[in-house]
Amino acid sequence: MTAPAKSSSAPVSEGFWRAAGRRLFADPLARVCIAIVSVYFVLAALSAAGLIAADWNEEYGVSYANPWFLGEDYPNPQGRNSLISQETMVIDDKQRAVDPLAPYYDEIEERAMQYQLTQRELRWTLPLGADKWGRDLVRKVIKAGEISITVGIGAALLAVMVGTFLGAIGGFFGGRTSDFLEWVYNVFTSVPYILLVLAFAAVTGKGINTIILVLGFTGWTSVYRLIRAEYIKQRSRDYVAAADALGASSARKVFIHILPNVSHLSLVQLSQLVVDFIKAEVILSFLGLGVPPDSVSWGIMINEVMTELVLGKWWQLATVAIVMSVFVVSFGLFTDLLRDALDPKATRR
Amino acid sequence: MRRLAAIHHFTHPLAPHRADCNDATGSWQHALIRMLWWLFLALALAVAPTIQGARAADSGKTLYTYFEAPESGFDPARNSDHYSGEVFSSIFEPLLTYDYLARPQTLVPNTADLPEISPDGMTFTYRIRPGIYFSSDPAFGGQRRELTAADYVYTFQRLVDPANRGAPWDFMFKGKVIGLDEKIAAAANGEFDYDSPVEGLQALDRYTLQIRLKRPDYNIPYITAAPATGVVAREVIERYGDDIDAHPVGTGPFRLKTWERRNHIVLEANPEYRGTTYSPVERDGVEFDHEVAQRLQGKTFPRLDTIDIRIIETAQASWLAFQSSQIDLHPRLGANYALLVAPNNELAEKYVKLGWHYFREAEADITYYQFFMDDPVVGGYTPDKVALRRAISLAFNQAKMISVVRNNQALAAQSPLAPQINGYDPEFRNVLGLYDPAKAKAMLDIFGYVDCDGDGWRDLPDCKPLRITYLSSSSQGGSRDTEEMLIKGLADIGIRLDTDVMNFSDFLKARQAGKFQFSGGAWGQDYPDAENFMQLLYGPNSGVVNDSRFRNAEFDRLYEQIASEPPSDARNERLREMSRIVNAYVPWIVEANRIRTHLAHPWVVGFKPHPDNMPHYLYLDIDWSQMPADLHARRESE
Q1: What gap in Å lies between CA B29 and CA A118, rounded to an integer?
Q2: Under an 8 A CB cutoff, do A112 and B583 touch?
C-alpha cells in the first residue's frame, strides 16, 4: 500500500481505505450526502423487492388529483372524466342476429357476476397529487427511482469497469496492445453515438437489462481515454519502478499499485456517467428502446410533463425534478468528497 | 388511401413510399436548387408575353402557415400522404370540387360541369370548360397549353400505373372502369401503355370525357373531386421523369415557387389561373356559413400572392409560432393546446380579446385498433377466437382513452365510419363494445383461456402461453399513453401484451405485409362516403388496403351492394348491418373520431375548415387593416 498513514492522533498507522473512510466521515456534508443517497438506495431496494410502490400502477385518485396542499376545491376539470359512468346499452335483436357469441350470452352473464367487484373510491387529493391516469405520484416516483437508479448505476458501473480496465491495459503496456485498443476506441467514437446505441439495442433485444448493457458498452470511451492517459503518466513514476524492483507482476502493478492512484478519476467519471445515463435513458425510451411501457422511470415522468404543463398540472414536474435533482446533486457531491478522501495526497485533514 | 396520424403521435400521416424519396437529400438539393434556378429563368421568359386577362392577386399578400408533418412530393399519382395532398390540391384541379362553405359536403363544377349520369349509374359524361390553361412551363415549348379531356384520360391512367410507386390511389378506378384492369394486368410485365384506348375511359371530343363502369358506382363524382385526380399534362410528366415530384404544373390557383424538402414550401399565385368567384351553391338540405360567404362576396380569387408553409413537427413550437404571429393560420392544434385555447368549447377570454378566429369540429376520420385475422392466436372466426378478440375489446376503456389521452377532443367511435360522410349514423351504438372487464374475464373462462401453468397469466385453450404483441410506430414521440392503457387493460383480464415499436415506414410495411398481431390504425376520408371506409374491411381488398385481412361473406355481400347504389335509407341500414358485423367479429376495435381545433389570426379572411381536410388556400385573404402595424411593417420589409 502506498497510502501515507498520516494521522496526528492515532499512534498506530491505519490502512489506506480506513483512512479514506475516516476522512470521508469526518466531513458533515459527506455524511448528509451519504444519508440522502442511502435513503434513495434503500427505497430503490425496497421497491425492487416489491415491498413498497408495487401498486404504483393502480389508480388511487381522479385524473390529475391535486396535491394535498392545493385542497379538493382547486379546479380539476380532468378529474370529472375519471368519474364518468358509461351509458347503458342493450344488445338489440339485429346485433344479436349477427353475433357468433349470441348462444353464450346467458353463460357469460352468469359467470361475469362472480367478477363484479366494487370500484375503489377515487380521491380528489393525494399527498403529491396524481398523474393523468390518477396514479399516486409518491408511489410512481419511487418506482421510477428504482428503475432510473438501477439503469444509471448499473450502466455507469459497467462503463467505468470496461473503460478503466481497457484504459489500464492500454496505458500500462503501450505498444501493440495500446494500438489495438486505440483502434477499437476509434471505431467506437467514429460511429455516431445514437447509431451505436441503436446497433447495440437491435442485437440485444428489449428491457431494462438491455438499456444497462447498451449504455454501458457504448459509454466507456471517455473513461478509457482518461484512464489510459493517467496510466501512461503513472507507469514511469518512482513507486512503480520501486514495485518493479521488488519483482511485482504486471497485474499487481496495474491493479494494486497504480489503480488506487487513478481510482479517483474513475469515481468522478462514475458520478458523471450516472447522471448522463439517467438522461440517456430518456432518449432511449423516446426511440422505443428504453423502459417498456408497463414500467416507469424519471425520464419517462419528465417526458410526460411536457403535455401536462399546458394544462397547468405542474406537480409531476415538481415531484420528479426535486427528487431527481436531490439525488443527482447528493450523488455528485458524495462522489466528489469520496474522491478527496481517496486521494492519497489529500492534505485537507 | 390517406393513412392518417392516429394520435398526433401514432400512425404518421405519411404514405409508405415516403422513405424512398427523401434519402438522397445531399447532392440532390444542389441539383434541385440549380434546376429550380433554371426553371425560374425559363419561366420568367415564358411568362412575360403571356400574362393576359389572368386574375388580380393583390401583390405582396403572403399567408404564413405550417404542417405538423413533412410532405413527400407533389406528384398526385405517387404520393398519398396527407401533407403532399394539401399542397397539390392547390396546384392541380380535379374535374369537380366541393363548395367551400356548404355543409354537408356538396359537389360543384370545377374544370367541368357536374357530370351527366346514366340512369343505371354506369356512364358518366363530363363537359370540360374550354379556355382553361396550364401554368406555363418549358415542357410546353413556349405555347399556352389548354386543358382537354385527353389530359384527364392520361391522368386517371397514371393513378393505376404501378410504376408510380405502386399506385397508392389505384382503388379509385381499379376494378371499376371497363378495360382498365386489362391494361393494369398487361403493365405487370412491362411499361404501362398510355396510348392504347380504354373502352371505359375516353375523350369523346376535345372537351368531353366519358367514364364507363363495369358496375354502378355513385361515388365516381366524388372520386373525380379528390385532389389526387387533379389533372396533369403528359408533356410535363414525360419531361421531368423521376424528378416530377418537384415539378408540379397544373391549372390550379397556385404553383410551386420554392421547395426545401421536409422544411419549407412556398407557393405563389399562378398567373395563368383563370380566376374565380364564390357564390354558395343552392341545394335542398345544404347549409352554408353566411358570415364567411359575405366576406367572399364579389371578390376574385385567389387574393393571396404567396403561401409560405413551414414544417413544424412539435406541437409546442407551432403553438408558439402562432402566438407570436409567425404563422397566420394554425390548423389542427394539439389536444392539450386545444383545451388551453377553448376549455369549454368556447374561446378563452384572453384570446377573444386578441380577435382570434376559432373553429372546432369533428373530423371525417376514424382511429381504431386492428387484429391480423390470419394470425393463429388473435385471428380466426370460430366462437373461441371471436371471444378472445371480444374480451380484448371489452377490456379497452374507450371512454377513458378519449377523456384522458385525447382530452375529450374526440367522439367515441361506434362503427368503422366517420362523421360528416354519407351513411354515418350518429345514433348508432356499438352495443357489444362497452368496457366491461368482468364480462371479458367470463368470456375468456368459458372459452378455455385460463391460467394453466399458474404464472398468473391466462394461456391458450391448449395451454400454450397466450402472448399478444402490439405493433406501434415511434413517429412523433411514440404512443406510450395508448400502450400503457392497452397493457394495463389487458393485464386486468389476465392477458399479457408485449409491444413492438418501429418507425412509421416500417410499421406500415409490416402492417401491409401482414406481419403483426395487433396494431393501431387511422383513416381519413378521400371522399365523403361510407364506402371509402368500409373498403378497408372488404375481403377482396385483403392486403395493402384491408390490413387486417378481415373476410366475412355477409359483409362482402353488403359491401358490393352499397358500393353500387346511391345513398338511401335502405343503404344506411345495410351500412349499420356491416357495422354490427364488424362489432361482433372485432377485426377492429373502433376508437375515436377526432375533434379538431383550428385557429386563425384576425387578419386572415375567409378561413373555414372543410371536412375534406384540405386547406382551400384559394379563398383566403389577408386584411391588412386587422394586422398590427408593426407586424405589417415587418412583413412589408421582408
Answers
A1: 63
A2: no
Chain A residues in contact with B409 (beta carbon < 8 A) = none
Burial class of residue B543 in the structure, from the number of CB atoms within 10 Å of its CB (0-12 exposed, 13-18 middle, 19+ buried): exposed
- So what's the ipTM on this one? 0.82
| Nearest by Cα to B116 from B220, B215, B214 | B220
B468 is written with which cell numbers? 399478444
Q: Domain B365-595, what fold?
A: Dipeptide-binding Protein; domain 3 (3.10.105)
CA distance A300 to A292: 10
Q: Name the minimum distance, in Å, from the CA of A29 to any CA of chain B.
A: 40
The amino acid occupying position B428 is F
Question: Cβ A98–B337 below 8 Å, yes or no?
Answer: no
Residues 246-275 of chain B with CB under 8 A from chain A are none
**CATH architecture, domain defined by A16-56+132-342:** Orthogonal Bundle (1.10)
Domain B28-296 has CATH 1.10.10.10: no
Q: Which of A89, A100, A110 sits opposite B434 (nearest CB)?
A: A89
Structural domain spans, chain B: 28-296, 365-595
| Domains of chain A by residue range | 16-56+132-342, 83-125
Please identify among residues 4-63 of chain B the ones whose CB lies closer than 8 Å to any CB of chain A. Answer: none
pLDDT by residue for chain A (349 residues), tens digit each? 444 444 445 456 777 778 888 888 888 999 999 999 999 999 999 999 999 999 999 989 999 999 999 988 888 888 888 877 777 788 999 999 999 999 999 999 999 998 877 777 889 999 999 999 999 999 999 999 999 999 999 999 999 999 999 999 999 998 999 999 999 999 988 988 778 877 777 677 667 888 898 889 888 999 999 999 999 999 999 999 999 999 999 999 999 899 988 887 888 788 878 878 887 887 776 666 678 888 898 888 888 887 888 888 999 999 999 998 899 888 888 888 887 887 666 554 4
In Å, how far is A101's CA from the nearest CA of chain B?
A: 6
Q: How far apart are CA A54 and CA A139, in angstroms?
A: 8
Residue of chain B minimizing CA distance to A291: B480
Distance CA A63, CA B383 (A): 37
Tell me the residue type at B106: T
Please give the grid coordinates belonging to residue A247. 519483482
Strands (E) in chain A, as ranges, are: 61-67, 123-126
